[in-house]
Amino acid sequence: MRNIENIVAFNDKFVENRDYEQYLTDRFPDKRMVIVTCMDARLTELLPKALNLRNGDAKIIKNAGGIVTQPFGNIMRSILIAVYELGADEVLVIGHHECGMTGLDPENVIQHMTASGVKDDTINTLLHSGMDLKRWLTGFDNVHDSVLKSVSIIRNHPLLPPGTPVHGLIIHPGTGKLDLLTNGYDANPAHPA
User: Fold this and answer.
1) For 81-98, what is each residue's pLDDT tens digit?
2) Domains of the chain, with CATH numbers?
3) What are phi and psi of 15, to 5 degrees?
4) Run of H or E including 167
5) What global pTM score does this model have?
6) How far apart are CA 40 and CA 42, in angstroms?
7) In the predicted model, is pLDDT for residue 155 greater than 70?
8) Which class for 75: exposed (0-12), middle (13-18), buried (19 or more C-beta within 10 A)?
9) Residue 93 phi, psi dihedral angles, 5° rounding
10) pLDDT confidence tier of residue 177, bands split at 50, 70 and 90
11) Contacts for 24 with CB less than 8 Å, ≥ 6 apart
12) Binding site for Zn(2+): what residues are annotated?
Protein backbone atom coordinates (compact mmCIF):
# COMPACT_ATOMS: atom_id res chain seq x y z
CA MET A 1 0.00 0.00 0.00
CA ARG A 2 1.03 3.59 -0.60
CA ASN A 3 1.25 6.17 2.20
CA ILE A 4 -2.20 7.69 1.72
CA GLU A 5 -3.85 4.27 1.61
CA ASN A 6 -2.05 3.27 4.82
CA ILE A 7 -3.10 6.52 6.46
CA VAL A 8 -6.77 6.13 5.53
CA ALA A 9 -6.84 2.46 6.60
CA PHE A 10 -5.22 3.31 9.94
CA ASN A 11 -7.61 6.22 10.43
CA ASP A 12 -10.65 4.02 9.89
CA LYS A 13 -9.48 1.79 12.78
CA PHE A 14 -8.47 4.81 14.90
CA VAL A 15 -12.00 6.21 14.70
CA GLU A 16 -13.72 2.82 14.94
CA ASN A 17 -11.77 2.00 18.13
CA ARG A 18 -12.43 5.49 19.54
CA ASP A 19 -8.67 6.01 20.06
CA TYR A 20 -9.26 9.75 19.62
CA GLU A 21 -10.91 10.01 23.03
CA GLN A 22 -7.57 10.35 24.83
CA TYR A 23 -6.86 13.50 22.79
CA LEU A 24 -10.17 15.31 23.27
CA THR A 25 -9.80 18.98 24.13
CA ASP A 26 -11.15 22.28 22.86
CA ARG A 27 -9.56 24.84 20.53
CA PHE A 28 -8.22 27.08 23.31
CA PRO A 29 -4.64 26.35 24.43
CA ASP A 30 -4.63 25.21 28.05
CA LYS A 31 -1.18 26.69 28.72
CA ARG A 32 -2.19 29.89 26.89
CA MET A 33 0.83 29.90 24.58
CA VAL A 34 1.57 29.93 20.89
CA ILE A 35 4.77 28.35 19.58
CA VAL A 36 6.49 29.12 16.29
CA THR A 37 8.88 26.33 15.36
CA CYS A 38 10.37 24.40 12.47
CA MET A 39 8.65 21.74 10.41
CA ASP A 40 11.63 19.40 10.91
CA ALA A 41 10.28 15.86 11.31
CA ARG A 42 12.59 15.24 14.28
CA LEU A 43 10.55 17.74 16.30
CA THR A 44 7.11 16.23 15.67
CA GLU A 45 7.02 14.28 18.93
CA LEU A 46 10.23 15.47 20.57
CA LEU A 47 9.33 19.15 20.93
CA PRO A 48 6.03 18.63 22.81
CA LYS A 49 7.65 16.01 25.05
CA ALA A 50 10.67 18.21 25.77
CA LEU A 51 8.34 21.10 26.74
CA ASN A 52 5.96 18.90 28.77
CA LEU A 53 3.08 19.69 26.41
CA ARG A 54 0.02 17.55 25.98
CA ASN A 55 -2.60 17.73 23.27
CA GLY A 56 -4.43 21.02 23.66
CA ASP A 57 -1.74 22.84 25.68
CA ALA A 58 -0.41 25.15 22.95
CA LYS A 59 -0.99 26.41 19.44
CA ILE A 60 1.97 25.24 17.36
CA ILE A 61 2.78 26.99 14.09
CA LYS A 62 5.38 25.28 11.91
CA ASN A 63 7.27 26.38 8.82
CA ALA A 64 10.69 25.88 7.26
CA GLY A 65 13.12 27.23 9.85
CA GLY A 66 10.51 28.29 12.39
CA ILE A 67 10.93 31.88 11.25
CA VAL A 68 8.84 35.01 10.95
CA THR A 69 10.02 36.81 7.84
CA GLN A 70 7.27 39.38 7.38
CA PRO A 71 5.37 41.36 9.98
CA PHE A 72 2.19 40.98 7.93
CA GLY A 73 2.63 37.44 6.63
CA ASN A 74 0.76 34.23 7.46
CA ILE A 75 2.85 33.33 10.50
CA MET A 76 2.28 36.67 12.22
CA ARG A 77 -1.43 36.54 11.36
CA SER A 78 -1.64 33.11 13.02
CA ILE A 79 0.11 34.43 16.13
CA LEU A 80 -2.32 37.35 16.37
CA ILE A 81 -5.35 35.06 15.91
CA ALA A 82 -4.00 32.77 18.66
CA VAL A 83 -3.63 35.78 20.97
CA TYR A 84 -6.85 37.64 20.22
CA GLU A 85 -9.26 34.82 19.43
CA LEU A 86 -7.91 31.72 21.13
CA GLY A 87 -6.60 32.94 24.48
CA ALA A 88 -2.83 32.68 24.05
CA ASP A 89 -1.00 35.29 26.07
CA GLU A 90 2.64 34.52 25.34
CA VAL A 91 4.71 33.48 22.34
CA LEU A 92 7.66 31.09 22.05
CA VAL A 93 9.92 31.07 19.00
CA ILE A 94 11.85 27.79 19.01
CA GLY A 95 14.55 27.20 16.43
CA HIS A 96 16.73 24.12 16.41
CA HIS A 97 20.32 23.08 15.88
CA GLU A 98 21.16 21.33 12.59
CA CYS A 99 18.34 23.17 10.79
CA GLY A 100 18.11 22.66 7.03
CA MET A 101 17.49 26.38 6.57
CA THR A 102 20.98 27.16 7.87
CA GLY A 103 23.01 28.20 4.86
CA LEU A 104 20.27 27.23 2.41
CA ASP A 105 21.39 28.30 -1.05
CA PRO A 106 18.52 29.52 -3.27
CA GLU A 107 20.48 28.61 -6.42
CA ASN A 108 20.52 24.95 -5.31
CA VAL A 109 16.79 25.06 -4.56
CA ILE A 110 16.10 26.49 -8.02
CA GLN A 111 18.29 23.79 -9.61
CA HIS A 112 16.30 21.15 -7.76
CA MET A 113 13.07 22.73 -9.00
CA THR A 114 14.16 22.63 -12.63
CA ALA A 115 15.54 19.09 -12.24
CA SER A 116 12.09 18.09 -10.93
CA GLY A 117 10.32 19.51 -13.96
CA VAL A 118 9.63 23.18 -13.23
CA LYS A 119 10.27 24.92 -16.53
CA ASP A 120 13.11 27.43 -16.89
CA ASP A 121 10.57 29.88 -18.35
CA THR A 122 8.60 29.76 -15.11
CA ILE A 123 11.72 30.41 -13.02
CA ASN A 124 12.84 33.24 -15.32
CA THR A 125 9.39 34.84 -15.26
CA LEU A 126 9.43 34.84 -11.46
CA LEU A 127 13.01 36.10 -11.30
CA HIS A 128 12.14 39.05 -13.54
CA SER A 129 8.60 39.79 -12.33
CA GLY A 130 9.50 41.83 -9.29
CA MET A 131 9.26 38.85 -6.94
CA ASP A 132 12.59 38.31 -5.24
CA LEU A 133 12.56 34.53 -5.67
CA LYS A 134 16.14 34.10 -4.50
CA ARG A 135 15.55 36.10 -1.32
CA TRP A 136 12.32 34.15 -0.72
CA LEU A 137 14.24 30.87 -0.96
CA THR A 138 17.23 31.97 1.13
CA GLY A 139 17.82 30.43 4.53
CA PHE A 140 19.71 32.02 7.39
CA ASP A 141 23.33 32.08 8.50
CA ASN A 142 22.76 30.77 12.01
CA VAL A 143 19.81 29.70 14.09
CA HIS A 144 20.66 31.97 17.04
CA ASP A 145 20.36 35.14 14.97
CA SER A 146 17.32 33.80 13.14
CA VAL A 147 15.41 33.19 16.38
CA LEU A 148 16.31 36.63 17.73
CA LYS A 149 15.22 38.28 14.48
CA SER A 150 11.85 36.52 14.61
CA VAL A 151 11.42 37.45 18.27
CA SER A 152 12.14 41.08 17.40
CA ILE A 153 9.57 41.11 14.58
CA ILE A 154 6.92 39.69 16.92
CA ARG A 155 7.77 41.85 19.96
CA ASN A 156 7.72 45.02 17.89
CA HIS A 157 4.57 44.24 15.97
CA PRO A 158 2.12 47.14 16.16
CA LEU A 159 -0.86 44.80 16.63
CA LEU A 160 0.57 42.61 19.40
CA PRO A 161 -0.84 43.54 22.81
CA PRO A 162 1.74 45.61 24.74
CA GLY A 163 3.57 43.55 27.34
CA THR A 164 3.05 40.19 25.61
CA PRO A 165 6.03 38.00 26.52
CA VAL A 166 7.88 36.70 23.47
CA HIS A 167 10.56 34.12 24.27
CA GLY A 168 13.34 32.84 22.02
CA LEU A 169 14.76 29.35 22.39
CA ILE A 170 16.80 26.75 20.50
CA ILE A 171 16.14 23.02 20.88
CA HIS A 172 18.57 20.22 20.10
CA PRO A 173 16.80 17.85 17.66
CA GLY A 174 18.46 14.78 19.15
CA THR A 175 18.23 15.34 22.89
CA GLY A 176 15.46 17.93 23.25
CA LYS A 177 17.77 20.17 25.31
CA LEU A 178 16.52 23.76 25.30
CA ASP A 179 18.70 26.86 25.30
CA LEU A 180 16.90 30.04 26.35
CA LEU A 181 18.13 32.95 24.21
CA THR A 182 15.77 35.64 25.40
CA ASN A 183 13.22 35.57 28.19
CA GLY A 184 10.05 37.46 27.30
CA TYR A 185 9.29 38.08 30.97
CA ASP A 186 12.55 40.01 31.31
CA ALA A 187 11.60 42.13 28.29
CA ASN A 188 8.15 42.74 29.86
CA PRO A 189 8.67 42.73 33.64
CA ALA A 190 5.06 43.79 34.30
CA HIS A 191 3.72 40.48 32.91
CA PRO A 192 2.91 37.90 35.59
CA ALA A 193 5.16 34.85 35.38
Assistant:
1) 999 999 999 999 999 999
2) 25-104+139-185 (3.40.1050.10)
3) -75, -45
4) strand 166-171
5) 0.91
6) 5
7) yes
8) buried
9) -105, 120
10) very high
11) none
12) 38, 40, 96, 99
